[in-house]
Each structure stands twice: as structure tokens, then as C-alpha cells.
Design goal:
Structural class: mainly beta
Helix content: under 10%
Largest sheet: 5 strands, antiparallel
Order of helices and strands: HEEEEEEEEEEEEEEEEEEEEEEEEE
Number of strands: 25
Number of helices: 1
CATH topology of the largest domain: Neuraminidase
Shape: elongated
Number of domains: 2
CATH superfamily of the largest domain: TolB, C-terminal domain
Radius of gyration: 26 Å
CATH architecture of the largest domain: 6 Propeller
């Protein structure tokens, strides 16, 4: 309530009516509220400065040109450039160990892009098999994929080995896991190439890369796991969901010594560790918690957030009110 410091009078010296005085107070209070909201709005939308020690480049997916395409973002300079200009959506980028090539998925086919020349070669044709989720062998001469007979079938794991030409005629396909009743997705090689970690029906599994043994289950319980990634020391980081709670766990390669890095209301669809293991580039999909100021943001789709190694939020790498940005893969160097 605004105190009456002195009677308010009109230009002709006649005091205003009580209704006009109340209306004037409401107008002043509304103006003060609008100023407060504006100040809070500005401060809530100021991006946190990214850590100065960030290095390397991320390759990610954005639909800013009207269709999903691959973009490259330098963390040192902030410069970006488009890597693909396809008429079909391009997804699931995976940077090769040589940092020159990037594998991707497009319409059930697996392609490889040369970052230096822009040349693209398709490894598979998407006729007999629908392929996706490519991940490189540490040697850079093979890719593990999730493959299915058609768009509605469940997927198994296949290994694509290829020669220097990287053409479909030189690609050798070898099934690693064949389970018609189960769904295997999100494969990733260990840093030494000895085993492959993947998701089978919402749980984390591991299989020897040479197919010399049966898959072993690493997780149990009611959590739904997704998109595992390997750290350089061989440990795993895996996002999960349990009803309306979401999180990220770190564990040993055998599933032991599990530690929860993050647990809360934010759904991270996937993440990519930095080369030095200090941060993660994570796909932020949504937050179930209500944030009044964030509710005013006109967000169209996903964003790429920077997380600390302990799971804490450290900044935003890619955000747009009109376009979705997601599926980052982190590469060291330019």
C-alpha cells in the first residue's frame, strides 16, 4: 500500500475522488511490478559464461535450415559452420578417432563425411537393413550400428568393417547380437576396443567386441537407461529415468561402483564427455520442474547444455527459441 504523503489534487485544485485515488495507486503498483518482472526476466535470460578452459569442437544436429543437419561449433572461438546440406534429415553424428571423419545416420543409411573436404560417402544403402546409431572402433576402421529389418522391427547390433575407399561394395557387415524378440540400441565401443556397451530393453549390457562371449547385464531394477558413453578411463556414464525422476550415473565397465552424478527433474536425452573428462555436452530435452521465468521463454525444441563432471549445470552451448539443437559429439582440437 502506498502511503498518503499529501492529498492528491487535480489541476483545478479539487481533490480526486476515492475511486480515482485507488486507481492511481494500482497504476503505480502495476508499473513497479512490471519493472521488477522486466529486471528478473533480463537476469534470468542472461547466459552463464562458459568456463575458459573449454577446448575442442562439438558436432551436433540442428534444424535451423528447415531439416536436421550437422553443424560444427568451435568451443574456443564460438564459430560455427554447416557440415551437411542434405534434403533428408541427418542424425546421430559420431566423430572418428582421426577427428577428420564424421559418421551419421540418414534415412536408415550410414554415411561418413570428411570434415576437411566436405566429401560424403554412404557405407550402407538402407535397402535390406535400416541402420542407425553409428559408433567408431578406436582404430577407425569399423563402426558398430543398431540395425533392423524395417522401420517397425526391433534392432540388433552389427559391425561394419570397411577399407580405405569407404564405399558400400567394400563394407563387410557382421551381426554381433541377433535377438529377434529384444531391442538393442545405442552401442558404443570401449576406449581400448575390447568390448561394446549398449542398451537392451532399457538396461545396460556389455559384450566382447570380437563376439567371443554372451552379453552380460550391468544394470538391474526399475530405472530405464539410455545412451551410454565411455570415459577415457573405461568407466561408463549413462542417463536414466524412473517415472518422473531423471538422472545420470557413472559406473565401472562391469557395472560396479555406481555413483549418481545428477538426479532431478531434467531429462537429458544423451551426453558426450569432453576429452579431459571435466565436462559433458548434454542434450537438454525438458525440465519437469516449474520455473516461472523460464516459462516465458518461447522454446521450440532441445538445447545443448554444458555439465560439470559432477553433473552440475555449467552453461549453454547451443540454444534457440526457434530451432532444436541436440545430439552433440565432442572432439578434441580444431
Amino acid at each position: 500500500m502506498i502511503p498518503d504523503a499529501a492529498p492528491i489534487r487535480s489541476a483545478d485544485g479539487v481533490p480526486p475522488s476515492p475511486a480515482r485515488r485507488r486507481r492511481a495507486r494500482w497504476l503505480i503498483a502495476g508499473a513497479l511490478l512490471a519493472v521488477s518482472i522486466t529486471i528478473a526476466f533480463v537476469f534470468s535470460f542472461r547466459e552463464r559464461s562458459l568456463p575458459s578452459e573449454l577446448h575442442g569442437t562439438i558436432v551436433y544436429v540442428s534444424d535451423r535450415a528447415g531439416v536436421d543437419a550437422l553443424y560444427e561449433h568451435s568451443l574456443e572461438t564460438g564459430k560455427e559452420r554447416a557440415l551437411t546440406h542434405m534434403t533428408e534429415p541427418v542424425r546421430s553424428p559420431a566423430i572418428a578417432p582421426d577427428r577428420r571423419r564424421v559418421a551419421f545416420e540418414m534415412g536408415g543409411r550410414i554415411g561418413v563425411l570428411d570434415r576437411s573436404t566436405g566429401e560424403t560417402r554412404m557405407l550402407t544403402l538402407g535397402v535390406k537393413w535400416k541402420d542407425g546409431a553409428p559408433a567408431w572402433h578406436p582404430r577407425g576402421d569399423a563402426i558398430v550400428i543398431a540395425s533392423r529389418r524395417d522401420e517397425y522391427a526391433k534392432s540388433d547390433l552389427h559391425l561394419l568393417a570397411f577399407g580405405e575407399s569407404s564405399s558400400p561394395v567394400d563394407v563387410t557387415r557382421a551381426p554381433l547380437v541377433q535377438t529377434p524378440g529384444l531391442n538393442e540400441t545405442s552401442p558404443i565401443f570401449s576406449p581400448d576396443g575390447r568390448f561394446i556397451v549398449f542398451i537392451r530393453d532399457d538396461n545396460v549390457y556389455r559384450i566382447p567386441a570380437d563376439d567371443a562371449g554372451r552379453p552380460s547385464r550391468l544394470t538391474h531394477g526399475f530405472k530405464k537407461w539410455r545412451a551410454p558413453r565411455c570415459l577415457r578411463d573405461g568407466r561408463l556414464v549413462v542417463p536414466w529415468s524412473l517415472e518422473k525422476i531423471h538422472g545420470i550415473d557413472r559406473m565401472d565397465a562391469d557395472g560396479r561402483n555406481r555413483v549418481t552424478l545428477y538426479e532431478g527433474s531434467i531429462f537429458y536425452a544423451g551426453l558426450s564427455p569432453s576429452p579431459n573428462g571435466a565436462h559433458f555436452a548434454a542434450t537438454f530435452s525438458y525440465d519437469l520442474a516449474f520455473h516461472p521465468m523460464q516459462a516465458l521463454r518461447l522454446r521450440k525444441g532441445e538445447e545443448i547444455h554444458l555439465l560439470r563432471f559432477d553433473g552440475g549445470h555449467a552453461g549453454v552451448l547451443a540454444r534457440s527459441s526457434r530451432h532444436a539443437n541436440h545430439s552433440p559429439d565432442w572432439m578434441h582440437g580444431r
